[in-house]
Write a structure and sequence with these properties.
By secondary structure, this protein is mainly alpha-helical. The protein folds into 2 domains: about 60 residues, Arc Repressor Mutant, subunit A; about 140 residues, Four Helix Bundle (Hemerythrin (Met), subunit A), CATH 1.20.120.530. The chain has 9 helices and 2 strands, in the order αααββαααααα. The chain has a two-stranded antiparallel ribbon. β1 and β2 form a beta hairpin. α5 runs antiparallel to α8 and α6 runs antiparallel to α7. The chain is elongated, with a radius of gyration of 24 Å. The N terminus is likely disordered. Keywords: DNA-binding, Transcription, Transcription regulation.
């Protein structure tokens, strides 16, 4: 059962300030009154005013200049601000994946055992079958790439991958939902190509395929 909750004072103060900006009380580039003045106007404490300003700064509306004050940076919350931040976060995760998985793919091609290769092929097949929902596909994709990392036989790379997995899961889920489609034939072929490079011990090709695939994902967000 959903409960009624009280909106924090800082959230209310931030909304009042945003409304005043939208109504034209302060123009673009204008300096806001000091904390003491705003606290008196809003009927809250200075700490609440500081938190409200911090919220609006985080949303791209205000900017704080050390020693100068708080200024209006935008007359409203940018419509795509949340999505912009989400895209930037996804890009950061993909860049980290490139660093880990490209090297892992190259090492896997050099070091993989027959058992490693069987595990990778099983993970590829499971990934191909996981097309019913975003969450299942992401989990199968991460399991496939982990099998490649494990085949690299570098415990530090495996640990880095495992530590990054929760954030990778979140970002890749966001990415697929932004795209609206996943599990295409071209996507499967890219992963199958990586498997074949590893199977035939083509280290350079494995690294190239891994980098190209992840870079292509990154470029879809630009």
């Amino acid at each position: 059962m959903q409960k009624v909750t009280r909106t924090p004072l800082a959230d209310q103060a931030a909304q009042v300030l945003l409304t005043r900006i939208r109504d034209g009380e302060w123009t673009l580039g204008a300096r806001l009154p000091g904390e003491t003045t705003l606290a008196a106007q809003l009927g809250v404490g200075r700490s609440t005013v500081r938190e409200a300003i911090r919220q609006l700064a985080g949303r791209g509306v205000l900017s704080t200049r050390q020693g100068s004050g708080v200024f209006v940076q935008a007359l409203d919350v940018p419509a795509d601000h949340g999505e912009t931040m989400r895209r930037a976060s996804i890009v950061s995760v993909i860049e980290a994946r490139i660093a880990i998985e490209t090297e892992a793919a190259a090492l896997a091609a050099q070091r993989r055992t027959p058992a490693d290769l069987r595990a990778i092929r099983r993970a590829l097949a499971a990934r191909a079958d996981a097309v019913g929902d975003v969450d299942g596909h992401v989990d199968a994709d991460l399991a496939f790439h982990r099998a490649v990392v494990v085949a690299a036989a570098n415990p530090i790379l495996t640990e880095l991958y495992d530590l990054s997995t929760p954030r990778m899961r979140e970002s890749m889920t966001d990415l697929l939902r932004l795209h609206g489609t996943f599990g295409s034939a071209a996507d499967h072929d890219a992963h199958a190509e990586l498997v074949e490079a590893i199977a035939h011990r083509r280290s350079t090709d494995a690294a190239t395929v891994s980098r190209n695939h992840l870079t292509a994902l990154k470029e879809t967000l630009s």
